[in-house]
Amino acid sequence: NEEFERLMGPELDTSRVADRSAVETTLEEARRSSVILSPGEAEAWLLVLNEARLALAARLGIEEEGWGEDEAALASNPTLAFLHYLTYLHGELTMVLMERL
User: Fold this and answer.
1) Using the 8-state DSSP alphabet, how is residue 48 labeled?
2) Which letter does DSSP use for residue 61 in this model?
3) Angle, helices 39-60/2-32, rounded to nearest 10 degrees
4) CA-based angle 35:26:40, to the nearest 5?
5) Percent helix, strand, coil in the chain (nearest 5)?
6) Please, what is the angle between helix 39-60 and helix 78-99, to 10°?
7) pLDDT tens track for 85-100
8) Are 60 and 79 in contact (CB under 8 A)?
9) Cα separation of 65 and 62, whole Å?
10) Burial class (CB in 10 A: 0-12, 13-18, 19+), 45
11) What are the backbone dihedrals phi and psi of residue 62, each rounded to the nearest 5 degrees, phi first?
């Protein structure tokens, strides 16, 4: 793990910054008009959404599948509901991209 981080860490950090920047740019464009994502922008969105989902799940202590099945928990916990929404967005974008293959 340490060796991988030493070798790939800077490159991964650069990629993450670029992905976040692409998402931010498309969000700013969406304020003015509709946006059609390029393949690169769509990939950046998938990566950023997944990164956000993983970070949020870690904060909530989620380690297993099935966490989104408890509707009462989703209704009473805004953070959990937001994680559920991010998961929905990630899934929808994945499906749209798969249809275009």
Assistant:
1) H
2) T
3) 110
4) 90
5) 85, 0, 15
6) 150
7) 999 999 999 999 999 8
8) yes
9) 8
10) buried
11) -80, 125
- Quickly list DSSP for 72-88: HHHHH-HHHHHHHHHHH
Q: Which of 34-38, 66-70, 75-79, 85-89 has the lowest mean pLDDT?
A: 66-70
Element (H, E) at 27: helix 2-32
Between CA 1 and CA 79 the distance in angstroms is: 30
Q: Give per-residue pLDDT as tens, 6-50.
A: 888 889 999 999 999 999 999 999 999 999 999 999 999 999 999
Judge contact between 88 and 33, C-beta under 8 A. Answer: no
Is the per-residue pLDDT at 66 higher than 90? no
Q: What is the CA radius of gyration of the chain?
A: 16
Handedness of CA 71, 77, 82, 87 (dihedral sign): negative
For the segment 79-87, the average pLDDT, to the nearest whole number, is 93
- Looking at residue 40, its amino acid is G
